Amino acid sequence: MKVLGIESSCDETGVAVYDTASSGAAGLLAHAVYSQIALHAEYGGVVPELASRDHVRKLLPLIRQTLDEAGLRLSDIEGVAYTAGPGLVGALLVGAGVARALAWGLDVPAIGVHHMEGHLLAPLMEDNAPEPPFVALLVSGGHTQLVAVDAIGRYRLLGETLDDAAGEAFDKTAKLMGLPYPGGPQLAKLAETGVPGVYKFSRPMTDRPGLDFSFSGLKTQVLLAWRDSDQSEQTKMDIARGFEDAVVDTLAIKCGRALDAAGCDTLIVAGGVGANKRLRAKLVEMCEKRGGRACFPRPSLCTDNGAMIAFAGALRLAAGQHDDLAIRATPRWDMATLQAL
Ligand code: KG4
Ligand code: ZN
């Protein structure tokens, strides 16, 4: 089944085609992402109304481009999946409206996909994918969650952030040192040349039991360190390194505990921060030490994309699930309420 996937929940327009006739990476026939970063940069964050309008401008050309790359015509599409939430309501409505209308016009089923389930299942699009049960670490700009995956569609929240998400902490920390939006990837780049140990920040909430996170205090620690420093380029790098090490260690400690709690040794990692090199290396090492493995999507499928939506939707459509004719946009949506496959 060839499924067109559409992602428009925030500041990336993503389109892809996934074909369930092949498994793993071979099923992904084409995918394209248009990022609105330049549009929002001058405001220092995403402006919802501008995001919606840009999705309107970019979505149809991107669908044409993706179909061309896959060597397909619209009439080859057998199902349409779109991000129904969580996200910015106006942005979601653009993708939902186009997706639902296309499916209706083509007389094929449509399904609204949970954005975080998309992220969570993205590592399964790669070759040699693990089978549930496993633990998922979801680390994006809006979410930091540890989820026990008993089966595809059956998710139990083990822990989450009580304040800032990991990506948000990266972005805010970058901003306070003067890096342009979205600073996460740039902060990670600076950290590569920073000296470890020059700045040592705390590993929040690791000194007590539990699987919840808190990252907002870390940002304050960086702010104080930055204010009291010489603010040189080298200092910026050293602080970036200290901050990244603190986040990576904290995530690794909690992932280890989550694997213990769930009684398994397979960890999957997804969401934008999953592209972070040091986090990937640390989690691989941690899982190997305990005889398990850590699985990630390729970096381009960690951040928002249409492929994960096409894939998650394709799994559900192939299992016979689909929506009615309603255009669904659910800005807040608990993943635990999803139907098992
Ligand atoms: O999953 P995503 O693309 O969008 C959301 O659903 O939020 O995640 C975006 C987040 C941003 O906060 C961004 O700064 C962060 O992921 N991010 C990174 C890296 N690449 C993206 N954070 C740290 N290191 C990276 N290499
Ligand atoms: Zn996302």
Number of strands: 10
Which consecutive residue ranges, at least 5 long each, have pLDDT under 50? none
Provide the CATH superfamily of the largest domain. ATPase, nucleotide binding domain
Shape: globular
CATH architecture level-2 label of the largest domain: 2-Layer Sandwich
Q: What number is the mean pLDDT?
A: 97
Tell me the number of helical segments per DSSP (H or I, 4 or more residues long). Answer: 10
What does the main sheet amount to?
5 strands, mixed
Summing up helix and strand content along with how strands pair, one would put the structural category as: alpha/beta
Distance between the termini: 16 Å
CATH hierarchy class name of the largest domain: Alpha Beta
Q: Would you tell me which CATH topology of the largest domain applies?
A: Nucleotidyltransferase, domain 5
**Strand order of the main beta sheet, please?**
3-2-1-4-5
Over all CA atoms, what is the radius of gyration? 20 Å
Can you give a write-up of this model?
It is a single chain. This protein is of the alpha/beta class and 341 residues long. It has 2 domains: 2-121 and 301-337, Nucleotidyltransferase, domain 5; 131-296, ATPase, nucleotide binding domain (Nucleotidyltransferase, domain 5). It contains 10 helices and 10 strands. The strands form 2 sheets. Strands 3-2-1-4-5 form a 5-stranded mixed β-sheet, with helices on both faces. Strands 8-7-6-9-10 form a 5-stranded mixed β-sheet, sandwiched between helices. The radius of gyration is 20 Å and the shape is globular. 50% of the residues are buried. The mean pLDDT is 97. Zinc ion (ZN) binds at residues 115, 119, 140, 271, 304.
